[in-house]
């Protein structure tokens, strides 16, 4: 006679029971991971925001931007560029306030005196140290007034005009 594990001769084994999985820990772990990712993305969003201001707006709220990376837009004046060292210095103005700017690197072909520019960087001891330089320009062509006169009204923008130019989606950096 054969014996079965139950100890009774001839008794078949009971059918195997499937182990029921408790899915609650898995769901909690998944929710925790999603929550952590959301916190990291949203929590660092404020650190990654780059503010855009005109020089006069910066002057009014300088404490707000202290130590932060920001974008400053305006007209480039008194441009000095050394092609050998790639050192660029100019004054950025909106017609009301002006700040000296220093930048190290290649300069776009469209960059010139009175160009509308956007610099990303930080203000340090009254000098804006740029990390990137964008030149804004319109797709609209304006012919010169005559030989040697340059573009009409070039460099004559109000802060509101500059804001419109800098925010214009048709003007490409």
UniProtKB/TrEMBL annotation:
InterPro entries: CcmE, CcmE-like_sf, NA-bd_OB-fold
Topological domains, Cytoplasmic: 1-23
Coarse class of the protein's main subcellular location: membrane
Database matches in Gene3D superfamilies: Nucleic acid-binding proteins (2.40.50.140)
Keyword Nucleotide-binding: no
Summary of the function given for this chain in its UniProt record: Heme chaperone required for the biogenesis of c-type cytochromes. Transiently binds heme delivered by CcmC and transfers the heme to apo-cytochromes in a process facilitated by CcmF and CcmH.
Protein's UniProt name: Cytochrome c-type biogenesis protein CcmE
């Amino acid at each position: 006679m054969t014996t079965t594990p139950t100890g009774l001769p001839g008794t078949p084994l009971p059918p195997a029971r499937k182990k029921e999985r408790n899915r609650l820990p898995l769901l909690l772990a998944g929710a925790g991971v999603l929550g952590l990712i959301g916190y990291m993305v949203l929590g660092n969003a404020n650190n990654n925001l780059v503010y855009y201001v005109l020089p006069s707006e910066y002057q009014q709220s300088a404490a707000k931007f202290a130590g932060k990376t920001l974008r400053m837009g305006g007209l480039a004046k008194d441009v000095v560029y050394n092609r050998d060292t790639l050192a660029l210095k100019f004054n950025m103005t909106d017609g009301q306030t002006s700040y000296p700017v220093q930048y190290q690197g290649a300069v776009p072909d469209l960059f010139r005196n009175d160009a509308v520019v956007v610099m990303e960087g930080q203000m340090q001891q009254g000098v804006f140290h740029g990390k990137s330089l964008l030149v804004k320009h319109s797709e609209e062509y304006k012919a010169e007034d005559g030989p040697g006169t340059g573009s009409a009204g070039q460099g004559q923008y109000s802060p509101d005009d500059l804001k419109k130019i800098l925010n214009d989606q048709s003007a490409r950096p």
